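anyone else get weird line breaks when pasting these?? whatever heres mine. first is seq + tokens for prot A
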Amino acid sequence: MRLAVFGGSFDPPHNGHLALCLYARELLQVDRLVISASNNPLKDAPQAADRDRVKMAELLAETINRTGAFAEVSSWEANRGHPVYTIDLMEYLEEIYSTSDLTLLIGEDNFLNFRQWKSWEELIRRYSIIVFGRKADDGASDDSAISERLHDQSFRHIDLNLPLSSTEIRKRLASGDDCSAEIPSPIWQYIVENQLYQ
């Protein structure tokens, strides 16, 4: 089994996350996608509660699976109640799914501090890594710039040209803006019904 792993805060999930997952299904030739709502040790604590972020990740998976089962959510990280490192998640999933054929999907914002990650060299050695960019006019979106930053060629870079940011969406939601165009409909409905990010 070829497994893709997409971890993130998902605070909240947006259409950029959805596009990344759909790209993985259609073009990366992986059998299954595991979405993991994480507590990133290198970022501020998420604004939404873990249970809400896991639920929104589940709604993201349901949206992806409307055209066939592909994505599922792991709550292993969120249930541990403290930050978990990516290498720990990958090793856990290797054991659970009995496969070492894992591909790590990360956003370019997280990639920029990749060398601060625990065991980042081991991640490169053991797993395929695909970095997804948000927009083409960002200087960091150039393949050569990313290669220079990491000094390694064992990854791919794919630019989705979707300049969406959960941080910016949270700010807009706190100001009372309507962000329904940037967020998958079931997730938007959940945010409104549960009065998140107000």
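and prot B, same format (seq, then tokens)
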Amino acid sequence: MASRAGPRATGTDGSDYQHRERVASHYQMSVALKSEIKKLNIAHAVVWFLVAAQVLVSQLNLVSHKVVASPYQWEYTYLLSIIPTVFSFMALPKNNISYLVISMISGGLFCIGPILYGGMEMFPVAQQLYRHGKAYRFIFGFSAVSIMYLVLIISVQVHGWQIYYSKKLLDAWFTNTQDKKKK
């Protein structure tokens, strides 16, 4: 294809792509991981909002305890799990390593810890439900223990992936800083 001024100059026919600069892989990985972490943070915020709504509705007696059961003990400590998500959101825009590390550590403490405790706290009630078919706590007509175990399963996956992707992102950021120190 020729230009208005005549034939193209040699070397501009598109075959010179091998000499062009490319985006370093750790930058590409950083963008992809940030996107995944943002999605997981939003998923966690939704789960957190649902747990917070149940605790708030129950504590303020907005509806009968027959409609929304009183919260389990682990749900109160799980409300602290918004802290790692806030630090994660603060870490992503400027690649702040300190905030990301705080998010990962507090994620284990405030997210995974209450979930493990909740699984153990609700186990006898779940065992009674599945052995004898008796449930004493309900959330909108459904067994509270079944709903809360579903919340636990979703939360474990969300927080596990958050910590995993945060670790991968941290590795990508450290690769970036190591490359800068070498120059």
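btw re prot B: Strands lie at 138-139, 142-143. The longest strand covers residues 138-139.
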